[in-house]
Every structure is written in C-alpha cells, then in structure tokens.
Amino acid sequence: MDGNGRWAKQRGLKRTMGHERGAKVAEDVIQWASDLGIRYLTLYSFSTENWKRPKEEVSFLFSLMVRYLESRLNKIIRENVRVRFTGRIEELPQEVFDVCKRIEEKSKNNSKIDVILAVNYGGRREIVDAVNKIISKGIKEIDIKDISNNLYLPDVPDPELIIRTSGEIRISNFLLWQIAYSELYFTDTLWPDFTKDDLIKAIENYSNRERRFGSISSDEGSEK
Ligand code: IPE
Ligand code: MG
What we know:
Layout: H1 4-10, H2 15-35, E1 40-47, H3 55-71, H4 73-78, E2 81-86, H5 94-106, E3 113-121, H6 123-136, H7 144-149, E4 161-164, E5 183-186, H8 196-207
Parallel strand pairs: 1-3, 2-3, 4-5
Helix pairs in contact: 1-2, 2-3, 3-5
The protein binds 3-methylbut-3-enyl trihydrogen diphosphate and magnesium ion.
C-alpha cells in the first residue's frame, strides 16, 4: 500500500493525512475483495524498515491502526472477516499489541475472508525466524517444507497476485519466501486513489496470465 505520502504532498497536506485516507481505502479494499470472493488478502501495513521514519509518523501509524481496529470491530464481526497479523507484533508498543491480539481472538471463527495485516513485518526476518525455530527443534538438515511449515502463518497459501501501488517496481522485503511463483502487478496509482476498478483491473490482468510454475504450456505437452 504505497504512495500515501506523495498523495498528501500533491495536495499540500501533511503525510499523516495521506495515511488517514490510505486507511479508509484499505477498509474499502477489504470489502471489495470480500465481495469478489477473495479468500485471503494480505495488506503490507508496516515493515521492519518503517521504524526509520520520524517517530511522530510511526506513532501516528500505530494509533491509526488501533483506532480503525477498535472502531470497526462490530463491522469485522458482522462481515465475517477474520483479522490476523503477520510480523513481529510482540515488538509493537504494548497497547497496540494488545489490540491486535484482541481483534485476532474475537474474529478467529470468521470465515468469509482472512485479512492479514503485515505489521512490523520483514520477509528476511520471517525466514530467519523460521530457521531459528527449526534449529530449536534440534533438526539438523532441512527441506523446503521445513521452512514453509515454520513461517509466521503456515496455513495461509502463497499469494497468487501481488499488487504494488505508486509506481515503485520492487518487492521491499514482502513475503519473500511465499512469492516464488506469485504474479506481480505494478500500478502508478497512489494507494489513496486506488478504486474498485483498479482492483478489478489488476485481477483481470492476472486472469489473462498463464501460470506455468516452471513447466510448459499445456497445449505444448506432446512436443519433444
Ligand atoms: C504508505 O505509503 C505506506 C506505509 C508504510 C504506511 P508511504 O508513506 O510509503 O507513501 P510515500 O512512499 O511517501 O508516497
Ligand atoms: Mg513509500
């Protein structure tokens, strides 16, 4: 969800106003995704690198998250949304961590869509944490499955489609292990301007791609 700061700057507003608008768009995107039948949606909300930002911006982002999660709890339950977190949330300020845990607990039996908020998340950190978990179990030699099974949320399937907004063409430490065969979609639209049409366009683009997972086209099977 990139481009909040630039969206605000274009309008002569403070960066925090961009985040405010970005949070509203995230709420809308959850609804659109759910209506479209998407089963898992992960929103990269705060990376392990975002601590480098001014501390006022960091604390604004956390208070925005807490405000949204608390005020939307009834809606989350009503809409059958399961909210989960990926990342080292135990390193967040205590009150933020507590709210995350509470929402996770209250929504754990919901089943229309899993909304996964990546908070204090880093893909390299996640892989290292998985390896350390494996080591602590005394396992000496590992396989691909060992890493997959020891990620933060091992039951969540690898993403089929990754959307990055605001014209940046990079991954920025997002789900490094899980995106091995994900389709990537980049758009110049800034996150606060992202609409339902943009979401549908991304999904349509994805639908027209042929996913071969290292194999060849199914209609080329007989060629030698
Ligand atoms: C929001 O966009 C992403 C968050 C980390 C919350 P940015 O804050 O990165 O916006 P730009 O890149 O400055 O435009
Ligand atoms: Mg950015």
